[in-house]
From TrEMBL, chains A, B:
Keyword Oxidoreductase: yes
Name recorded for this polypeptide: Prephenate dehydrogenase
Pathway where it operates: Amino-acid biosynthesis
Prephenate/arogenate dehydrogenase domain mapped to chain residues: 1-278
Protein family (similarity comment): Belongs to the prephenate/arogenate dehydrogenase family.
Gene Ontology molecular function: NAD+ binding; prephenate dehydrogenase (NAD+) activity; prephenate dehydrogenase (NADP+) activity
Length: 278, 278
Protein backbone atom coordinates (compact mmCIF):
# COMPACT_ATOMS: atom_id res chain seq x y z
CA UNK A 1 0.00 0.00 0.00
CA UNK A 2 1.31 3.41 -0.98
CA UNK A 3 0.42 6.10 1.54
CA UNK A 4 0.78 9.80 0.77
CA UNK A 5 0.67 12.19 3.70
CA UNK A 6 0.02 15.79 2.71
CA UNK A 7 1.29 18.16 5.38
CA UNK A 8 4.10 16.96 7.64
CA UNK A 9 3.28 18.81 10.83
CA UNK A 10 3.03 17.31 14.30
CA UNK A 11 0.05 15.16 13.32
CA UNK A 12 1.08 14.17 9.80
CA UNK A 13 4.65 13.56 10.96
CA UNK A 14 3.45 11.36 13.83
CA UNK A 15 1.36 9.25 11.45
CA UNK A 16 4.41 8.84 9.22
CA UNK A 17 6.67 7.88 12.12
CA UNK A 18 4.29 5.42 13.76
CA UNK A 19 3.36 3.72 10.47
CA UNK A 20 7.01 3.56 9.44
CA UNK A 21 7.72 1.81 12.73
CA UNK A 22 4.84 -0.57 12.00
CA UNK A 23 6.55 -1.55 8.75
CA UNK A 24 4.55 0.34 6.09
CA UNK A 25 6.54 -0.01 2.92
CA UNK A 26 5.93 3.21 1.06
CA UNK A 27 5.17 6.44 2.84
CA UNK A 28 5.33 9.50 0.64
CA UNK A 29 5.63 12.82 2.45
CA UNK A 30 4.35 15.97 0.80
CA UNK A 31 4.91 19.40 2.30
CA UNK A 32 5.36 22.86 0.83
CA UNK A 33 8.29 23.46 3.16
CA UNK A 34 11.51 22.09 1.70
CA UNK A 35 13.30 22.03 5.06
CA UNK A 36 10.55 19.86 6.48
CA UNK A 37 10.98 17.36 3.65
CA UNK A 38 14.76 17.34 4.05
CA UNK A 39 14.40 16.76 7.77
CA UNK A 40 11.82 13.98 7.31
CA UNK A 41 14.04 12.19 4.78
CA UNK A 42 17.14 12.55 6.91
CA UNK A 43 15.33 11.25 10.00
CA UNK A 44 13.78 8.40 7.97
CA UNK A 45 10.29 9.50 8.84
CA UNK A 46 9.24 9.01 5.19
CA UNK A 47 10.47 6.92 2.25
CA UNK A 48 10.05 9.67 -0.32
CA UNK A 49 9.44 13.37 -0.05
CA UNK A 50 8.35 16.19 -2.33
CA UNK A 51 7.19 19.77 -2.18
CA UNK A 52 4.73 19.44 -5.09
CA UNK A 53 2.05 16.80 -4.73
CA UNK A 54 1.39 15.66 -8.30
CA UNK A 55 3.84 12.75 -8.58
CA UNK A 56 3.15 11.48 -5.08
CA UNK A 57 -0.61 11.55 -5.50
CA UNK A 58 -0.48 9.54 -8.74
CA UNK A 59 1.07 6.59 -6.90
CA UNK A 60 -1.01 6.77 -3.75
CA UNK A 61 -3.59 4.18 -2.67
CA UNK A 62 -4.37 6.24 0.40
CA UNK A 63 -4.01 10.02 0.72
CA UNK A 64 -4.07 11.53 4.17
CA UNK A 65 -4.62 15.28 4.25
CA UNK A 66 -3.33 16.84 7.46
CA UNK A 67 -4.23 20.36 6.44
CA UNK A 68 -6.23 23.23 7.92
CA UNK A 69 -10.02 22.92 7.53
CA UNK A 70 -10.14 25.63 4.85
CA UNK A 71 -7.51 23.85 2.74
CA UNK A 72 -9.20 20.45 2.36
CA UNK A 73 -11.79 21.13 -0.38
CA UNK A 74 -9.51 23.46 -2.38
CA UNK A 75 -6.75 20.81 -2.32
CA UNK A 76 -9.12 18.12 -3.58
CA UNK A 77 -10.40 20.41 -6.31
CA UNK A 78 -6.92 21.45 -7.44
CA UNK A 79 -5.36 17.96 -7.51
CA UNK A 80 -8.24 15.58 -8.21
CA UNK A 81 -7.00 14.86 -11.74
CA UNK A 82 -3.99 13.13 -10.17
CA UNK A 83 -6.06 10.75 -8.02
CA UNK A 84 -5.77 7.06 -8.87
CA UNK A 85 -8.89 4.99 -9.57
CA UNK A 86 -10.23 3.76 -6.22
CA UNK A 87 -8.06 6.01 -4.09
CA UNK A 88 -9.09 6.46 -0.47
CA UNK A 89 -8.67 9.93 1.05
CA UNK A 90 -8.89 10.86 4.68
CA UNK A 91 -8.51 14.02 6.78
CA UNK A 92 -7.73 14.84 10.41
CA UNK A 93 -9.77 17.99 10.95
CA UNK A 94 -11.59 18.66 14.20
CA UNK A 95 -14.88 19.70 12.58
CA UNK A 96 -16.80 17.58 10.15
CA UNK A 97 -20.19 18.69 8.77
CA UNK A 98 -18.98 21.78 6.92
CA UNK A 99 -15.80 20.09 5.64
CA UNK A 100 -17.77 17.10 4.38
CA UNK A 101 -20.23 19.34 2.58
CA UNK A 102 -17.55 21.42 0.84
CA UNK A 103 -15.35 18.45 -0.01
CA UNK A 104 -18.08 16.14 -1.32
CA UNK A 105 -18.98 18.83 -3.84
CA UNK A 106 -15.56 18.63 -5.52
CA UNK A 107 -14.69 14.95 -4.94
CA UNK A 108 -14.42 12.86 -8.15
CA UNK A 109 -16.56 9.69 -8.40
CA UNK A 110 -13.54 7.38 -8.52
CA UNK A 111 -12.33 8.49 -5.07
CA UNK A 112 -13.73 7.68 -1.62
CA UNK A 113 -13.19 10.13 1.26
CA UNK A 114 -13.30 8.69 4.81
CA UNK A 115 -13.56 11.63 7.19
CA UNK A 116 -11.84 11.11 10.53
CA UNK A 117 -10.68 12.94 13.62
CA UNK A 118 -7.67 11.71 15.61
CA UNK A 119 -8.26 12.87 19.19
CA UNK A 120 -4.80 13.87 20.25
CA UNK A 121 -3.75 17.47 20.04
CA UNK A 122 -0.23 18.71 19.93
CA UNK A 123 1.38 21.42 21.98
CA UNK A 124 4.40 21.53 19.69
CA UNK A 125 3.88 22.69 16.15
CA UNK A 126 5.61 21.31 13.08
CA UNK A 127 7.49 18.12 12.37
CA UNK A 128 9.64 18.68 15.48
CA UNK A 129 6.48 17.96 17.52
CA UNK A 130 5.97 14.57 15.84
CA UNK A 131 6.75 11.26 17.53
CA UNK A 132 6.31 7.57 16.81
CA UNK A 133 4.30 6.96 19.98
CA UNK A 134 2.11 10.06 19.91
CA UNK A 135 -1.06 8.09 19.23
CA UNK A 136 -0.49 5.23 21.68
CA UNK A 137 -3.75 4.71 23.55
CA UNK A 138 -5.47 7.66 21.88
CA UNK A 139 -9.08 7.75 20.65
CA UNK A 140 -10.25 8.58 17.17
CA UNK A 141 -13.64 9.35 15.68
CA UNK A 142 -14.65 8.17 12.21
CA UNK A 143 -17.61 9.94 10.62
CA UNK A 144 -18.85 7.79 7.72
CA UNK A 145 -21.09 9.22 5.03
CA UNK A 146 -23.55 7.22 2.85
CA UNK A 147 -21.23 7.18 -0.17
CA UNK A 148 -18.37 5.52 1.76
CA UNK A 149 -17.55 1.87 1.01
CA UNK A 150 -17.27 -0.30 4.11
CA UNK A 151 -13.97 -1.77 2.94
CA UNK A 152 -12.49 1.72 2.71
CA UNK A 153 -13.70 2.67 6.19
CA UNK A 154 -12.05 -0.52 7.45
CA UNK A 155 -8.86 0.36 5.62
CA UNK A 156 -8.62 3.70 7.41
CA UNK A 157 -9.55 2.14 10.75
CA UNK A 158 -6.79 -0.43 10.32
CA UNK A 159 -4.33 2.35 9.56
CA UNK A 160 -5.36 4.14 12.78
CA UNK A 161 -4.87 0.96 14.81
CA UNK A 162 -1.49 0.48 13.16
CA UNK A 163 -0.60 4.03 14.22
CA UNK A 164 -1.34 3.18 17.85
CA UNK A 165 -4.92 4.34 18.41
CA UNK A 166 -6.80 2.19 20.87
CA UNK A 167 -10.45 3.17 20.49
CA UNK A 168 -12.11 4.02 17.19
CA UNK A 169 -15.72 5.14 17.29
CA UNK A 170 -18.02 5.69 14.34
CA UNK A 171 -20.43 8.59 14.75
CA UNK A 172 -22.49 10.75 12.45
CA UNK A 173 -20.87 14.04 11.41
CA UNK A 174 -23.69 15.93 13.17
CA UNK A 175 -23.20 14.17 16.48
CA UNK A 176 -19.44 14.61 16.14
CA UNK A 177 -19.73 18.36 15.71
CA UNK A 178 -22.30 18.77 18.46
CA UNK A 179 -20.19 16.84 20.98
CA UNK A 180 -16.88 18.40 19.93
CA UNK A 181 -18.48 21.82 20.36
CA UNK A 182 -19.14 20.82 23.95
CA UNK A 183 -16.10 18.84 25.09
CA UNK A 184 -13.43 20.72 23.18
CA UNK A 185 -14.49 24.00 21.58
CA UNK A 186 -16.40 25.25 24.62
CA UNK A 187 -13.35 24.50 26.83
CA UNK A 188 -11.20 26.65 24.56
CA UNK A 189 -13.80 29.45 24.46
CA UNK A 190 -13.95 29.50 28.27
CA UNK A 191 -10.19 29.37 28.66
CA UNK A 192 -9.46 32.30 26.35
CA UNK A 193 -12.29 34.34 27.90
CA UNK A 194 -10.89 33.75 31.39
CA UNK A 195 -7.44 34.89 30.32
CA UNK A 196 -8.81 37.96 28.53
CA UNK A 197 -10.86 39.04 31.57
CA UNK A 198 -10.32 42.62 32.70
CA UNK A 199 -9.33 41.13 36.07
CA UNK A 200 -6.15 39.62 34.61
CA UNK A 201 -3.02 41.41 35.80
CA UNK A 202 0.68 40.98 36.47
CA UNK A 203 -0.23 40.08 40.06
CA UNK A 204 -2.56 37.27 39.07
CA UNK A 205 -0.07 34.46 39.63
CA UNK A 206 0.46 35.49 43.27
CA UNK A 207 -3.06 34.24 43.86
CA UNK A 208 -3.34 31.39 41.37
CA UNK A 209 -3.21 27.70 42.16
CA UNK A 210 -3.41 24.54 40.07
CA UNK A 211 -6.94 25.10 38.81
CA UNK A 212 -6.07 28.41 37.16
CA UNK A 213 -2.96 26.98 35.56
CA UNK A 214 -4.84 23.96 34.22
CA UNK A 215 -7.89 25.81 32.99
CA UNK A 216 -5.84 28.42 31.14
CA UNK A 217 -3.35 25.96 29.57
CA UNK A 218 -5.34 25.78 26.31
CA UNK A 219 -5.48 29.58 26.03
CA UNK A 220 -2.00 29.22 24.52
CA UNK A 221 -3.84 28.67 21.26
CA UNK A 222 -3.09 28.57 17.52
CA UNK A 223 -5.26 31.50 16.44
CA UNK A 224 -5.37 30.66 12.71
CA UNK A 225 -6.35 27.02 13.15
CA UNK A 226 -8.85 27.61 15.93
CA UNK A 227 -10.55 30.52 14.21
CA UNK A 228 -11.26 28.14 11.35
CA UNK A 229 -12.42 25.36 13.68
CA UNK A 230 -14.76 27.70 15.56
CA UNK A 231 -16.23 29.31 12.43
CA UNK A 232 -16.66 25.98 10.67
CA UNK A 233 -18.74 24.74 13.58
CA UNK A 234 -20.59 27.94 14.31
CA UNK A 235 -24.11 26.65 15.01
CA UNK A 236 -23.05 23.79 17.28
CA UNK A 237 -20.56 26.00 19.10
CA UNK A 238 -23.10 28.75 19.78
CA UNK A 239 -25.59 26.15 20.97
CA UNK A 240 -22.97 24.73 23.30
CA UNK A 241 -22.20 28.16 24.76
CA UNK A 242 -25.93 28.76 25.26
CA UNK A 243 -26.35 25.48 27.16
CA UNK A 244 -23.36 26.37 29.31
CA UNK A 245 -24.64 29.89 29.97
CA UNK A 246 -27.96 28.51 31.22
CA UNK A 247 -26.09 26.55 33.90
CA UNK A 248 -23.85 29.46 34.85
CA UNK A 249 -27.02 31.54 35.21
CA UNK A 250 -28.50 28.94 37.60
CA UNK A 251 -25.30 29.08 39.62
CA UNK A 252 -25.35 32.90 39.70
CA UNK A 253 -28.99 33.00 40.76
CA UNK A 254 -28.26 30.72 43.70
CA UNK A 255 -25.37 32.95 44.79
CA UNK A 256 -27.29 36.19 44.25
CA UNK A 257 -30.25 35.01 46.31
CA UNK A 258 -28.07 33.37 49.01
CA UNK A 259 -29.82 30.09 48.28
CA UNK A 260 -27.36 27.72 49.94
CA UNK A 261 -29.49 24.64 49.35
CA UNK A 262 -29.83 25.31 45.61
CA UNK A 263 -26.10 25.96 45.44
CA UNK A 264 -25.25 22.72 47.24
CA UNK A 265 -27.60 20.78 44.96
CA UNK A 266 -25.91 22.29 41.92
CA UNK A 267 -22.45 21.38 43.21
CA UNK A 268 -23.53 17.89 44.24
CA UNK A 269 -24.97 17.25 40.80
CA UNK A 270 -21.67 18.30 39.21
CA UNK A 271 -19.61 16.18 41.58
CA UNK A 272 -21.70 13.09 40.88
CA UNK A 273 -21.54 13.54 37.11
CA UNK A 274 -17.77 14.14 37.24
CA UNK A 275 -17.23 10.98 39.32
CA UNK A 276 -19.48 9.07 36.98
CA UNK A 277 -17.16 9.98 34.12
CA UNK A 278 -13.69 9.58 35.65
CA UNK B 1 5.78 27.63 71.89
CA UNK B 2 2.55 25.71 72.37
CA UNK B 3 0.54 25.34 69.19
CA UNK B 4 -3.09 24.19 69.21
CA UNK B 5 -4.55 23.08 65.89
CA UNK B 6 -8.34 22.96 65.87
CA UNK B 7 -9.57 20.60 63.17
CA UNK B 8 -7.26 17.79 62.07
CA UNK B 9 -8.31 17.43 58.45
CA UNK B 10 -5.99 17.36 55.45
CA UNK B 11 -4.83 20.95 56.04
CA UNK B 12 -4.66 20.93 59.86
CA UNK B 13 -3.05 17.50 59.81
CA UNK B 14 -0.44 18.62 57.29
CA UNK B 15 0.48 21.62 59.42
CA UNK B 16 0.86 19.30 62.43
CA UNK B 17 3.02 16.83 60.49
CA UNK B 18 5.29 19.37 58.86
CA UNK B 19 5.81 21.36 62.08
CA UNK B 20 6.41 18.16 64.06
CA UNK B 21 9.09 17.28 61.53
CA UNK B 22 10.55 20.76 61.96
CA UNK B 23 10.91 20.09 65.69
CA UNK B 24 8.03 22.00 67.24
CA UNK B 25 7.89 20.85 70.84
CA UNK B 26 4.24 20.97 71.73
CA UNK B 27 1.52 20.50 69.16
CA UNK B 28 -1.94 20.00 70.60
CA UNK B 29 -4.50 18.50 68.23
CA UNK B 30 -8.18 19.22 68.77
CA UNK B 31 -10.87 17.50 66.76
CA UNK B 32 -14.45 16.46 67.54
CA UNK B 33 -13.78 13.07 65.97
CA UNK B 34 -12.23 10.68 68.48
CA UNK B 35 -10.90 8.32 65.81
CA UNK B 36 -9.02 11.19 64.22
CA UNK B 37 -7.35 12.02 67.56
CA UNK B 38 -6.47 8.36 68.16
CA UNK B 39 -4.97 8.09 64.68
CA UNK B 40 -3.02 11.35 65.06
CA UNK B 41 -1.56 10.23 68.41
CA UNK B 42 -0.69 6.77 67.14
CA UNK B 43 1.00 8.20 64.04
CA UNK B 44 2.82 10.80 66.18
CA UNK B 45 1.32 13.65 64.19
CA UNK B 46 0.56 15.52 67.45
CA UNK B 47 1.96 15.49 71.00
CA UNK B 48 -1.41 15.69 72.70
CA UNK B 49 -4.93 15.25 71.48
CA UNK B 50 -8.42 16.01 72.72
CA UNK B 51 -11.99 16.14 71.49
CA UNK B 52 -12.96 19.15 73.65
CA UNK B 53 -10.94 22.31 73.17
CA UNK B 54 -10.97 23.95 76.61
CA UNK B 55 -7.81 22.45 78.13
CA UNK B 56 -5.78 22.72 74.96
CA UNK B 57 -6.72 26.33 74.33
CA UNK B 58 -5.70 27.38 77.85
CA UNK B 59 -2.12 26.30 77.19
CA UNK B 60 -1.84 27.60 73.63
CA UNK B 61 0.38 30.48 72.50
CA UNK B 62 -0.86 30.05 68.95
CA UNK B 63 -4.27 28.66 67.94
CA UNK B 64 -4.75 27.63 64.33
CA UNK B 65 -8.38 27.16 63.31
CA UNK B 66 -8.68 24.88 60.29
CA UNK B 67 -12.46 25.03 60.26
CA UNK B 68 -15.15 25.88 57.70
CA UNK B 69 -15.73 29.62 57.14
CA UNK B 70 -19.03 29.59 59.04
CA UNK B 71 -17.41 27.99 62.10
CA UNK B 72 -14.65 30.54 62.75
CA UNK B 73 -16.54 33.38 64.49
CA UNK B 74 -18.84 31.00 66.48
CA UNK B 75 -15.77 29.09 67.70
CA UNK B 76 -14.06 32.27 68.86
CA UNK B 77 -17.22 33.46 70.59
CA UNK B 78 -17.79 30.13 72.33
CA UNK B 79 -14.25 29.56 73.57
CA UNK B 80 -12.77 33.04 74.01
CA UNK B 81 -12.81 32.77 77.80
CA UNK B 82 -10.17 30.05 77.49
CA UNK B 83 -7.75 32.18 75.43
CA UNK B 84 -4.46 33.04 77.15
CA UNK B 85 -3.33 36.68 77.44
CA UNK B 86 -1.48 37.58 74.20
CA UNK B 87 -2.61 34.50 72.26
CA UNK B 88 -2.25 34.62 68.47
CA UNK B 89 -5.02 33.03 66.41
CA UNK B 90 -4.94 32.24 62.73
CA UNK B 91 -7.28 30.63 60.16
CA UNK B 92 -6.89 28.96 56.78
CA UNK B 93 -10.11 29.95 55.04
CA UNK B 94 -10.22 30.83 51.37
CA UNK B 95 -12.28 34.01 51.80
CA UNK B 96 -11.35 36.87 54.04
CA UNK B 97 -13.43 40.08 54.21
CA UNK B 98 -16.61 38.52 55.60
CA UNK B 99 -14.74 36.21 58.00
CA UNK B 100 -12.65 39.09 59.33
CA UNK B 101 -15.74 41.21 59.91
CA UNK B 102 -17.63 38.49 61.77
CA UNK B 103 -14.64 37.35 63.78
CA UNK B 104 -13.36 40.79 64.80
CA UNK B 105 -16.76 41.47 66.35
CA UNK B 106 -16.34 38.62 68.86
CA UNK B 107 -12.56 38.63 69.36
CA UNK B 108 -11.43 39.57 72.90
CA UNK B 109 -8.93 42.46 73.28
CA UNK B 110 -6.19 40.24 74.67
CA UNK B 111 -6.05 38.10 71.50
CA UNK B 112 -4.63 38.93 68.06
CA UNK B 113 -6.05 37.20 64.96
CA UNK B 114 -3.74 36.95 61.92
CA UNK B 115 -5.91 35.96 58.97
CA UNK B 116 -4.16 33.78 56.39
CA UNK B 117 -4.81 31.57 53.38
CA UNK B 118 -2.50 28.65 52.58
CA UNK B 119 -2.72 28.16 48.82
CA UNK B 120 -2.71 24.42 48.53
CA UNK B 121 -5.94 22.55 48.25
CA UNK B 122 -6.41 18.93 48.99
CA UNK B 123 -8.06 16.29 46.91
CA UNK B 124 -8.19 13.88 49.82
CA UNK B 125 -10.36 14.79 52.78
CA UNK B 126 -9.55 14.12 56.42
CA UNK B 127 -6.37 13.31 58.26
CA UNK B 128 -5.60 10.53 55.78
CA UNK B 129 -5.04 13.28 53.20
CA UNK B 130 -2.39 14.99 55.37
CA UNK B 131 1.33 14.77 54.69
CA UNK B 132 4.52 16.29 56.07
CA UNK B 133 5.56 17.69 52.70
CA UNK B 134 2.18 18.96 51.51
CA UNK B 135 3.21 22.61 51.72
CA UNK B 136 6.69 22.29 50.20
CA UNK B 137 7.04 25.13 47.71
CA UNK B 138 3.46 26.35 48.15
CA UNK B 139 2.32 29.97 48.33
CA UNK B 140 0.35 31.58 51.11
CA UNK B 141 -1.44 34.88 51.45
CA UNK B 142 -1.50 36.85 54.69
CA UNK B 143 -4.19 39.51 55.03
CA UNK B 144 -3.20 41.82 57.90
CA UNK B 145 -5.73 44.12 59.52
CA UNK B 146 -4.92 47.40 61.36
CA UNK B 147 -5.25 45.86 64.84
CA UNK B 148 -2.60 43.19 64.14
CA UNK B 149 0.78 43.49 65.84
CA UNK B 150 3.73 43.16 63.48
CA UNK B 151 5.45 40.65 65.78
CA UNK B 152 2.39 38.41 65.61
CA UNK B 153 2.22 38.60 61.82
CA UNK B 154 5.89 37.60 61.75
CA UNK B 155 5.20 34.73 64.14
CA UNK B 156 2.58 33.28 61.78
CA UNK B 157 4.78 33.89 58.73
CA UNK B 158 7.64 32.04 60.44
CA UNK B 159 5.32 29.14 61.20
CA UNK B 160 4.30 29.00 57.52
CA UNK B 161 7.94 28.95 56.42
CA UNK B 162 8.63 26.22 58.97
CA UNK B 163 5.74 24.25 57.44
CA UNK B 164 7.40 24.43 54.02
CA UNK B 165 5.75 27.38 52.28
CA UNK B 166 8.08 29.22 49.94
CA UNK B 167 6.32 32.49 49.11
CA UNK B 168 4.28 34.52 51.59
CA UNK B 169 2.53 37.60 50.29
CA UNK B 170 0.75 40.24 52.34
CA UNK B 171 -2.34 41.68 50.70
CA UNK B 172 -5.42 43.54 51.85
CA UNK B 173 -8.46 41.38 52.55
CA UNK B 174 -10.34 43.19 49.75
CA UNK B 175 -7.68 42.51 47.13
CA UNK B 176 -7.43 38.93 48.34
CA UNK B 177 -11.14 38.31 47.86
CA UNK B 178 -11.29 40.07 44.52
CA UNK B 179 -8.38 38.06 43.10
CA UNK B 180 -9.46 34.74 44.61
CA UNK B 181 -12.89 35.29 43.07
CA UNK B 182 -11.13 35.43 39.72
CA UNK B 183 -8.34 32.85 39.86
CA UNK B 184 -10.10 30.23 41.97
CA UNK B 185 -13.83 30.71 42.50
CA UNK B 186 -14.57 31.57 38.87
CA UNK B 187 -12.67 28.43 37.77
CA UNK B 188 -14.88 26.32 40.02
CA UNK B 189 -18.05 28.06 38.83
CA UNK B 190 -17.12 27.40 35.19
CA UNK B 191 -16.14 23.81 35.85
CA UNK B 192 -19.38 22.84 37.60
CA UNK B 193 -21.45 24.67 34.98
CA UNK B 194 -19.69 22.77 32.18
CA UNK B 195 -20.37 19.44 33.88
CA UNK B 196 -24.01 20.32 34.56
CA UNK B 197 -24.62 21.34 30.94
CA UNK B 198 -27.60 19.66 29.27
CA UNK B 199 -25.09 18.41 26.68
CA UNK B 200 -23.43 16.11 29.21
CA UNK B 201 -24.18 12.43 28.56
CA UNK B 202 -22.86 8.92 29.02
CA UNK B 203 -21.25 9.26 25.57
CA UNK B 204 -19.32 12.39 26.48
CA UNK B 205 -16.02 10.66 27.17
CA UNK B 206 -15.94 9.14 23.69
CA UNK B 207 -15.29 12.66 22.46
CA UNK B 208 -13.33 14.17 25.31
CA UNK B 209 -9.61 14.85 25.37
CA UNK B 210 -7.22 16.29 27.93
CA UNK B 211 -8.78 19.73 28.06
CA UNK B 212 -12.17 18.40 29.16
CA UNK B 213 -10.62 16.17 31.78
CA UNK B 214 -8.51 19.01 33.17
CA UNK B 215 -11.17 21.66 33.12
CA UNK B 216 -13.72 19.44 34.87
CA UNK B 217 -11.34 18.05 37.53
CA UNK B 218 -12.41 20.64 40.10
CA UNK B 219 -16.10 19.86 39.54
CA UNK B 220 -15.47 16.97 41.95
CA UNK B 221 -16.19 19.51 44.64
CA UNK B 222 -16.94 19.60 48.38
CA UNK B 223 -20.43 21.11 48.20
CA UNK B 224 -20.66 22.21 51.85
CA UNK B 225 -17.31 23.97 51.94
CA UNK B 226 -17.62 25.62 48.54
CA UNK B 227 -21.17 26.82 49.09
CA UNK B 228 -19.83 28.71 52.10
CA UNK B 229 -16.82 30.03 50.21
CA UNK B 230 -18.98 31.26 47.33
CA UNK B 231 -21.63 32.87 49.54
CA UNK B 232 -19.05 34.49 51.80
CA UNK B 233 -17.51 36.17 48.77
CA UNK B 234 -20.69 36.95 46.92
CA UNK B 235 -19.98 40.47 45.62
CA UNK B 236 -16.48 39.74 44.35
CA UNK B 237 -17.58 36.43 42.82
CA UNK B 238 -20.50 37.99 40.93
CA UNK B 239 -18.21 40.76 39.71
CA UNK B 240 -15.75 38.17 38.49
CA UNK B 241 -18.44 36.27 36.62
CA UNK B 242 -19.62 39.53 35.03
CA UNK B 243 -16.10 40.38 33.80
CA UNK B 244 -15.76 36.88 32.37
CA UNK B 245 -19.17 37.03 30.68
CA UNK B 246 -18.21 40.25 28.93
CA UNK B 247 -15.27 38.44 27.30
CA UNK B 248 -17.33 35.38 26.38
CA UNK B 249 -19.83 37.76 24.78
CA UNK B 250 -17.04 39.32 22.68
CA UNK B 251 -15.99 35.85 21.58
CA UNK B 252 -19.59 34.90 20.71
CA UNK B 253 -20.12 38.09 18.73
CA UNK B 254 -17.06 37.37 16.62
CA UNK B 255 -18.30 33.83 15.90
CA UNK B 256 -21.89 34.92 15.23
CA UNK B 257 -20.81 37.58 12.75
CA UNK B 258 -18.12 35.38 11.12
CA UNK B 259 -15.57 38.04 12.02
CA UNK B 260 -12.42 35.98 11.60
CA UNK B 261 -10.09 38.93 12.23
CA UNK B 262 -11.77 39.84 15.52
CA UNK B 263 -11.68 36.19 16.53
CA UNK B 264 -7.99 35.86 15.73
CA UNK B 265 -7.23 39.05 17.66
CA UNK B 266 -9.12 37.70 20.67
CA UNK B 267 -7.22 34.40 20.55
CA UNK B 268 -3.87 36.10 20.02
CA UNK B 269 -4.47 38.36 23.03
CA UNK B 270 -5.22 35.31 25.19
CA UNK B 271 -2.17 33.41 23.93
CA UNK B 272 0.13 36.33 24.68
CA UNK B 273 -1.25 36.87 28.18
CA UNK B 274 -1.02 33.13 28.95
CA UNK B 275 2.60 32.99 27.78
CA UNK B 276 3.34 36.11 29.78
CA UNK B 277 2.18 34.27 32.92
CA UNK B 278 3.65 30.79 32.48
Amino acid sequence: MNLAIVGLGAIGGSFAMSLMKKGYERIIGIDIDEQTIDYALKEQIIHEGMTSPEEGLKDADVIMLTLYPSQIAPFVEQYRSYFRQGVVLTDVTGVKTSIIKETTRVLPDHADFIFAHPMRGSEKKGIAGASADKFEGANALITPVPLNKEENILKIETMYKDAGFSTLTRVTPEKHDEQIAYVSQLMHALSVSVVNSSQASDDTLLFAGNSFQELTRIADINDSLWSELFLNNKEALLQSITSFEAELETFKQAVETDDEEALKDFLTRAREQRRNWY
